[in-house]
Design goal:
Elements (H helix, E strand, L loop, with lengths): L1 E3 H4 L10 H10 L3 E8 L3 E13 L7 E7 L2 E7 L9 E10 L9 E3 L2 E3 L2 E2 L26 H4 L4 E7 L10 H12 L12 E2 L6 E4 L7 E8 L7 H9 L7 H13 L3 E5 L7 E6 L5 E3 L5 E3 L5 E4 L4 E4 L3 E2 L11 E8 L2 H11 L4 H6 L6 H17 L3 E3 L3 E3 L7 E6 H8 L5 H9 L4 E5 L2 E6 L9 H12 L20 H15 L3 E2 L5 E2 L4 E4 L10 E3 L3 H13 L4 E14 L2 E14 L13 H15 L4 E4 L6 E17 L13 E15 L1 H4 L8 E7 H7 L14 E10 L4 H9 L4 E10 L8 E10 L8 H15 L5 E2 L2
Parallel strand pairs: 11-22, 12-15, 27-31
Antiparallel strand pairs: 1-10, 2-10, 3-4, 3-6, 4-5, 6-9, 7-8, 13-21, 13-22, 13-23, 14-21, 15-18, 16-17, 18-19, 19-20, 24-26, 25-26, 28-30, 29-30, 31-32, 32-36, 33-34, 34-35, 35-36, 37-39, 37-40, 38-39
Helix pairs in contact: 5-6, 6-9, 11-12, 13-15
Length: 798
């Protein structure tokens, strides 16, 4: 933001200090100065009237002008394309000195003597590039224009942070100067006479959340011109003067930070302003002459039916102020920052107004801007302001009260500030302070929308007190060596294991459409990013789709990422591993083999073995996105054996087991509907598993001596109903305390096997750690296993 110090000085008396010290103080207070532009003095430049323009006798592109100034007529040669008889322009006579340091001399151009120079705004360093001379709004008297243009001047380019919308106007910067340098801030003149009849207009809001406040005033604009300083200040701020009515609204926007808009009242015959969202397919032509197609993301100002402006962005061509405008409808409003941001992106248009509304302006600023604009209309343009205002402000903002503990200031800043000085720092920022015991009760001024918490007030105290006054001391907290916590280290280990298994890591966005999310964002930034992912499946599938669209033949990818789950009123975050296999394996000598369920299961087993996690079984799962016959749930099975004490301690028949199964993931092949449209239609296999249960279940590496007593092996051939998962059979066998290991080595269906069943043959190893098992004990253990399997419909094969 460009800030003229001459403009600032209208509201505060600037301190006597060099520019370097000023810049340092502003930067320490949070106003970063990005650039300083010095505009030099102007001497010998007056206002002249062009009385005659003729072609140059010896040059096609030059004109010879006669310019009257101070009762004399001067002959000048110029190549400007906008020379007009009767126009007023800045005239530099011989001996005049321009801001660039150039001294003007009388010269002869192609045989014609030029007694000076007609200037452009560029010649005065007010504009970077001009296309012609500067046409002044009217005669400026016989005085030197340097004073009217407020030259010399210093223009600072300030970087305004997004949380300080109060600094988007010159008056807000002046308020900051007053606080920093203990200067008195002059009050703005908001006075203007009101005339009868009162305003006859209606304002309605479709949704006050989109437009919390709207003020409309009616002004009959008379004849008049603005002081030259208005145009000079607009130029210094990076804007051009256009039309007196529009120049005033732009000037007040730069002064206060409140964007305003003037409509030609004759073009609003309904005498009604209705603020609403755009309808699908609705169109309007904006002031830049572009026909724009609108979406419901865009907020509109309408006359009750047709749109006349893009709210907070740009006005419409149909209601534009022109030279023939007599009556003006002045808009001063407050719009939702999120709504203006979305609307600006939807139409691809960002303006000075939208940039300010996107910063969350105070609703109270609308009334201030409206009154200030009416003051200038009445004072300089002969404006007659109708009595009253048409306003919609359904939910006025209440003053914000923040409690500030005095001791907390010292704790945070590390320096004890006397109570009197602490109070002064706050009051210099226009805050009302009342003492209540050991704390202050602080009333925040309406323009400071960024102050919400105690810590915000402490930061303001530090800025005004001066960061340079706070001594640098070593931190009182003990320094610790940085590093990753156990969660991060485990995730890194999982990544290394997956990479070793031949998988490639990818990272996918955490923002997904709502059909892939459980948690909705309050303020989504784009379509398709409305929620936080509840599964890694969406991102992995998109990666497959994009790679196969680029002629990939096979993929083996993994991602370690976080998902967000809704649990009542809380959001639970969970780290997960996702693996996806699609298309050909790419394994040497395997030909055109495609990935299948066995590959996916093998990867899961490899990960579990490398992590030293036992007790993971596959079982039934209700997952409609997976093929019904190629899917399984991943369960962590834990066994807790409790024994009787005393003489029966060694009686293994009295051992009982408590088996718990916790679902920790799933794996399988995606259905065609879930996979969607993927070029080549490859089989897509995927697994997703939670990392926390694996981290907690992994076994520590410990030394175990070789078994001292021999094991006993038994082969169990079981008839298992087709609907019973193998994992449940394995779990029932492992529930036996004496079982050391189980290995499935045969699966058979066919002749001799009853219909609806299959034969599973296991090698079961029995061992007791303290003695040799007898044949009778092993047979009893087998009997207990068969008893556990009986409720599942499983029986021993004859």
């Amino acid at each position: 933001m460009r800030v003229s110090l001459r403009w600032i000085s209208e509201y505060v008396e600037l301190p006597e200090m060099d520019r370097e010290a000023l810049v340092e103080r502003l930067t320490l207070a949070g106003l970063e100065v990005e650039d300083i532009r010095e505009l030099g003095p102007v001497e010998g430049v007056v206002c002249g009237k062009i009385v005659r323009v003729v072609s140059h006798p010896n040059a096609d592109r030059l004109k010879v002008c006669e310019v009257e100034a101070g009762g004399r007529v001067y002959t000048l040669v110029s190549g400007a394309p906008n020379l007009e008889e009767g126009a007023w322009a800045p005239l530099a006579l011989p001996g005049a000195r321009l801001p660039s340091g150039l001294e003007v001399k009388a010269v002869t151009l192609r045989g014609v003597k030029s007694q000076g120079m007609i200037l452009s705004a560029q010649d005065l360093l007010l504009e970077e590039k001009s296309t012609g001379i500067w046409i002044l709004p009217g005669p400026q008297g016989g005085e030197d224009l340097g004073g009217l243009l407020e030259l010399p001047d210093t223009v600072l380019s300030l970087k305004i942070t997004s949380n300080r919308p109060d600094l988007l106007g010159i008056y807000g910067i002046a308020r900051e100067f007053a606080a920093l340098f203990r200067c008195e801030l002059k009050e703005l003149d908001l006075s203007f006479p009101e005339t009868d009849p009162p305003i006859d207009f209606r304002v309605t809001l479709e949704d006050p959340r989109d437009c919390p406040r709207y003020i409309a005033r009616e002004i009959e604009v008379g004849q008049g011109t603005l002081p030259l300083k208005f145009a000079a200040r607009l130029y210094k701020a990076g804007m051009r003067p256009l039309h007196p009515v529009v120049d005033v609204t732009n000037y007040v926007m730069l002064e206060l930070g409140e964007p305003l808009h003037a409509f030609d009242l004759a073009r609003i015959p309904s005498r009604w302003i209705h603020v609403r969202r755009a309808r699908p397919g609705e169109r309007m032509r904006t002031l830049d002459g572009v026909e724009r197609e609108l979406t419901p993301e865009v907020l509109l100002i309408t006359d009750g039916e047709r749109p006349i402006a893009l709210a907070g962005i740009m006005g419409g061509e149909d209601s534009e102020v022109s030279e023939n405008t007599v009556d003006v409808l002045l808009e001063a409003a407050n719009f939702s920052s999120a709504r203006i941001r979305r609307g600006s992106r939807a139409v691809g248009l960002q303006t000075e107004a939208s940039l300010r509304f996107e910063r969350n302006l105070s609703p109270e600023l609308a009334d201030l801007g409206s009154r200030r604009t009416c003051h200038f209309y009445a004072k300089y343009l002969g404006g007659r302001v109708a009595r009253g205002a048409a306003e919609a402000y359904p939910e006025p903002k209440r003053a914000r009260i923040i409690s500030l503990r005095k001791a907390r200031v010292g704790e945070i800043l590390g320096v004890e500030i006397p109570e009197g000085e602490l109070r002064e720092c706050l009051e210099r920022l226009e805050m009302e302070v009342r003492t209540e015991g050991d704390r202050f009760r602080v009333r925040v001024p309406p323009h400071r929308t960024d102050l919400e918490r105690e810590i915000d007030l402490i930061e303001e105290v530090a800025r005004i007190y001066g960061y340079d006054r706070i001594p640098a001391v070593p931190p009182v907290v003990p320094l610790r060596r940085g590093g990753k916590d156990s969660r991060e280290e485990f995730a890194d280990e999982v990544r290394r294991i997956c990479t070793a298994l031949g998988l490639q890591e990818i990272l996918t966005p955490g923002l997904v459409p709502m059909d892939a999310a459980e948690v909705r964002l309050k303020n989504p930034m784009a379509v398709g990013q409305e929620g936080l992912r509840a599964s890694l499946r969406h991102g992995l599938l998109e990666a497959v789709r994009e790679n196969f669209a680029s002629q990939a033949e096979g993929l083996a990818l993994f991602e370690v990422g976080r998902v967000f789950l809704s649990r009542g009123d809380e959001v639970v975050e969970e780290d997960r591993l996702g693996v996806v296999l699609a298309g050909r394996t790419g394994i040497p000598l395997a030909g055109k083999e495609h990935f299948g369920p066995s590959h996916l299961k093998g990867i899961l087993e490899g990960i579990l073995a490398a992590l030293r996690v036992k007790g993971v079984e596959l079982g039934e799962i209700d997952a409609p996105w997976l093929h019904p016959f190629r899917r399984a749930g991943i369960y962590l099975v834990t066994r807790d054996a409790s024994r009787v004490t005393g003489a029966e301690k060694e009686d293994t028949s009295r051992v009982t087991h408590h088996v718990s199964r916790m679902s920790i993931g799933w794996l399988g092949e995606l259905t065609p509907e879930a996979a969607g449209d993927i070029p080549g239609n490859p089989r897509v296999l995927m697994l997703e598993i939670s990392l926390l249960p694996l981290r907690e279940a992994r076994e520590e590496i410990r030394f175990e001596p070789l078994a001292r007593y021999p094991a006993s092996k038994r082969d169990l051939s079981l008839l298992v109903p087709v609907g019973v998962p193998e994992g449940r059979v394995r779990g029932a066998i492992l529930a036996e305390e004496l079982v050391e290991s189980v290995f499935l080595y045969d699966l058979y269906t066919g002749a001799g096997i009853p219909e609806g069943t299959r034969s599973l043959t296991y090698e079961v190893v029995f061992r007791h750690p303290d003695r040799t098992l007898s044949s009778e004990e092993v047979e009893e253990a087998v009997g207990r296993i068969l008893a556990r399997l009986e409720p599942l419909g499983v029986r021993l094969r004859g």
